[in-house]
Amino acid sequence: AVHGVRVPGFVIKRPDTITVAQIGAEQNVEVRRVMLGQYGEGRYLLDVGATEVHADESGTLFRVEIPGDEPLVMVRVENSTPETDGSRKPYFLRVPPDMTQARQAVAWTFGKTPETYAPAIRT
Fold it and tell me: How far does the chain reach from its first CA to its final CA, in angstroms?
């Protein structure tokens, strides 16, 4: 069980074997959410070809419909601190399904509105 949700053994013992098809076929919403968490929500968005809703300097907002559940909506942002090789690591942050703009979604993660979100320095 994961957080009190009984799941098939492979979800815990072999999470690397979870497929997009298995996630899509899972009828139990709680089990599907655990499977999504094990698979990686950001990875799932990319692998299922989620719709790019909006992009700006704040990030890129993605959305995918999940039958029998609320849509999965996430904003992709990049770490402002470069890695040792100079690249910038991407992160996916889950946001409420009513988000329509990347800046709005990033602002929400800080408890702000797009109008009040004004970082002076990004670290």
Answer: 37
